[in-house]
Write a structure and sequence with these properties.
2 domains; mainly alpha; elongated; Cytochrome Bc1 Complex, Chain D, domain 2; 237 residues; binds heme C
Length: 237
């Protein structure tokens, strides 16, 4: 099982590298400094106001011209662009060349390194839990559970302890509450409730989320898997 996780993690990273193509990996910290240039016209925090330009939180992988309540130029609205790594970097190199007629008056970031850094920073401005949740699919989540969890957990009502505790009706409940299960001290004393946010944080990387947990599980890397398993767990009532 461990090997399988390792392999899927490796495939994951290879895909990431090839998706970035020839672009050198950017540095998010220096990207954050560069983003001050954008802050004159854009907020970048979650739920931030539209200023002269639209709020840019979680803009990557979204279609252009789609931030609610912002009045775009028709050039932007009709551009048909999706802000992936390539279009984002092209646009901030030369906004007016990539979207003719855009009302974004910004001369552009000159070097590829700067654009890669800025991209790396924007990749950190990702989905809130709410956003992730709303994209979950319970059917797919069941498959994720079969693939990643059932080696250690049962999910059905009254299911037995495998290695970890039974997970029926766990969403929204206090942690470490299954009678008779020998939890780690870390989880017993955590005071956690399995809110959406906590579940997503825990499932992303149990050991990082809760030092000392005995859930030896490398974590779900894909945001979609996390959303799906969350949706599935919520159906188990
Ligand atoms: C002088 C103001 C100004 C600055 C500086 C500026 N922008 Fe913009 N930006 C705008 C405006 C205005 C729009 C809307 C364009 C339109 O509707 O044509 C926009 C649109 C965008 C969009 C498209 C958003 C969407 O919802 O499709 C992205 C992406 C973007 N800007 C990124 C940046 C980045 C990154 C920087 C910094 C490197 C930056 N902008 C700097 C004014 C600015
Ligand atoms: C290698 C075994 C293993 C795998 C795989 C695993 N877990 Fe666990 N899990 C555990 C153990 C052990 C615990 C108890 C942790 C503790 O006491 O610190 C636990 C605890 C939990 C808890 C807290 C339960 C409670 O009563 O508070 C949740 C929620 C959970 N796991 C969800 C999952 C989900 C969902 C998956 C699949 C995506 C998964 N786990 C995969 C071993 C595993």
């Amino acid at each position: 099982m461990k090997l399988k996780y390792l392999i899927s993690t490796c495939i994951g990273s290879v895909m990431f590298v090839s998706a970035a193509g020839a672009i050198a990996a950017g540095d998010a910290a220096s990207g954050e400094k560069l983003a001050k240039k954008c802050a004159a016209c854009h907020t970048m925090d979650e739920g931030g106001k539209n200023r002269l330009g639209p709020n840019l939180f979680n803009i990557l992988d979204k279609p252009a011209g789609a931030v609610e309540g912002y009045k775009y130029s028709s050039a932007m609205k009709e551009s048909g662009i999706t802000w992936d790594a390539a279009t984002f970097q092209d646009f901030i190199a030369k906004p007016k060349k990539v979207v003719k007629g855009t009302k974004m008056s910004f001369s552009g970031l000159k070097t590829a390194a700067q654009r890669a850094d800025l991209l790396a920073y924007f990749q950190t401005l990702r989905s809130s839990t709410a956003e992730i949740e709303s994209h979950g699919n319970a059917e797919d989540g069941k498959v994720v559970a079969q693939k990643h969890c059932i080696v250690c957990h049962s999910f059905e009502k009254g299911g037995k302890t495998v290695y970890g505790p039974n997970l029926f009706d766990m969403a929204g409940k206090p942690a470490a509450a299954i009678a008779g299960y020998d939890y780690s001290d870390a989880l017993k004393t955590s005071g956690l409730t399995w809110t959406d946010k906590n579940l997503i944080g825990f499932l992303a990387d149990p050991e990082q989320f809760l030092k000392g947990t005995k859930a030896r599980f490398p974590g779900l890397k894909s945001a979609q898997d996390k959303a799906d398993i969350l949706a599935y767990m919520k159906t188990l009532k």
